[in-house]
């Protein structure tokens, strides 16, 4: 049995769990209220139990009573990568996302009860800057509880072996008397060309292609007008400006706005890390998610690969929307593994 054990709150499809397990940590359970995540989580992380519960309704002593998890265990790690729409810098309805605002403090009640050796938190950078953030209160509680070693920073996944420009707030805290650091950055930066394309096993496909194998190299279909727009968009990094003067293709909302929202309908660059993979990465109208060369958006497997999920990771759903949500919300496994290795090796 691994020396370190972990419980992954807000686990989703298991990106953090998978990475920690690759580092040799025994993740005994994942908690998430999204029932669509259960099959994907348990299939790829055998032995880790998926607990389909709203954290605010889960009995704090559940893990002690049902799984034999001990309190005050120096080798127990609790992970709280709570949904973060409220603190996101992406413009969205804050009214709809209010429930995500206080989830970090709901996670705290489990930290307070079990007093684990380590606490991991990953969230959007906006949690640092938002005037209504609960982060200062969470940090105060950690320090009062005896977590004297806390490291935190905004990091970019492209610096840690993930071929994606993804800035995230990352925190590691321990009450064990030892120095801790965030993972060491990689020497080499991966770009889209390093992981996608025919040479990496991604055959050329068209918009609307359906792949029923576990690879899930399925791409969302395009309307005729969006296909026409993409055909006029320059390969390898082109933007919607390529068709801004075509009255049949230009959208009214972008007329006179040639310097705004240029990523929308744009193509990825082969030789740069991808933009942030969101839950809508399959849609070219939601960001720079068009293939660098082919006239389509990203496939599900391509999005997963840019999130550093291995080719063997199975997304147990036939729904593009569900799979993309599990992928876009995930902590990249490659980064999670580096965090796990840092804890184990130091």
Overall description:
With 346 residues, the chain is of the alpha/beta class. It has a domain at 5-185 and 332-345: Vaccinia Virus protein VP39 (Rossmann fold). The protein is 26% helix and 12% strand. It is built from eleven helices and seven strands. Strands 3-2-1-4-5-7-6 form a seven-stranded mixed β-sheet, with helices on both faces. Helix 2 links the parallel strand 2 (26-32) and strand 3. The longest helix has 13 residues, at 333-345. It is elongated and about 65 Å long. The mean pLDDT is 93.
Quickly describe the structure.
This protein is α/β, with parallel strands linked by helices. The chain is 26% helix and 12% strand. It starts with a strand and ends with a helix.
In the CATH hierarchy, what is the superfamily of the domain at 5-185 and 332-345? Vaccinia Virus protein VP39
What does the oligomeric state look like here? single chain
- Under CATH, the topology of the domain at 5-185 and 332-345 can be stated as Rossmann fold
The helix content is 25-40%
Q: How many strands appear in the DSSP assignment?
A: 7
Enumerate the spans where pLDDT stays under 50 for 5 or more consecutive residues: none
Strand % is: 5-15%
């Amino acid at each position: 049995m691994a020396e370190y054990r972990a419980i992954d709150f807000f686990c989703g499809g298991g990106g953090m769990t998978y990475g920690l397990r690759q580092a040799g940590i025994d993740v005994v359970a994942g908690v998430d209220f999204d029932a669509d995540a259960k099959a994907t989580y348990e299939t790829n992380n055998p032995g880790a139990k998926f607990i389909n519960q709203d954290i605010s309704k889960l009995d704090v002593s559940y893990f002690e009573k049902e799984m034999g998890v001990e309190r005050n265990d120096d080798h127990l790690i609790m992970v709280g990568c709570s949904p973060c729409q409220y603190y996101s810098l992406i413009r969205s309805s804050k009214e709809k996302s209010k429930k995500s605002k206080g989830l970090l403090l709901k996670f705290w009640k489990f930290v307070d009860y079990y007093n684990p050796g380590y606490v991991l938190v990953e969230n959007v950078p906006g949690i640092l800057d938002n005037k209504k953030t609960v982060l200062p209160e969470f940090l105060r509680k950690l320090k009062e509880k005896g977590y004297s070693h806390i490291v935190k920073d905004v990091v970019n996944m492209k610096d840690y072996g993930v071929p994606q420009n993804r800035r995230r707030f990352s925190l590691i805290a321990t009450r064990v008397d030892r120095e801790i650091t965030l993972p060491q950055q990689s020497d080499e930066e991966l770009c889209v060309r390093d992981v996608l394309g025919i040479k990496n096993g991604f055959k050329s496909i068209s918009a609307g292609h359906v792949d029923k194998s576990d690879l899930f190299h399925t791409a969302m279909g395009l309307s005729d007008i969006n296909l026409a727009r993409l055909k006029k968009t320059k390969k390898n990094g082109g933007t919607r400006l390529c068709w801004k003067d075509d009255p049949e293709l230009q959208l009214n909302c972008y007329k006179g706005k040639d310097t705004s929202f240029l990523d929308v309908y744009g193509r990825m660059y082969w030789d740069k890390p991808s933009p942030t993979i969101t839950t809508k990465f399959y849609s070219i109208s939601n960001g720079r998610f068009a293939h660098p060369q082919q006239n389509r958006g990203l496939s599900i497997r391509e999005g997963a690969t840019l999130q550093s999920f291995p080719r063997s990771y199975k997304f147990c759903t036939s729904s593009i929307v569900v799979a993309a949500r599990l992928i876009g919300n995930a902590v990249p496994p490659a980064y999670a593994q580096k965090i796990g290795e840092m804890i184990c090796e130091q």
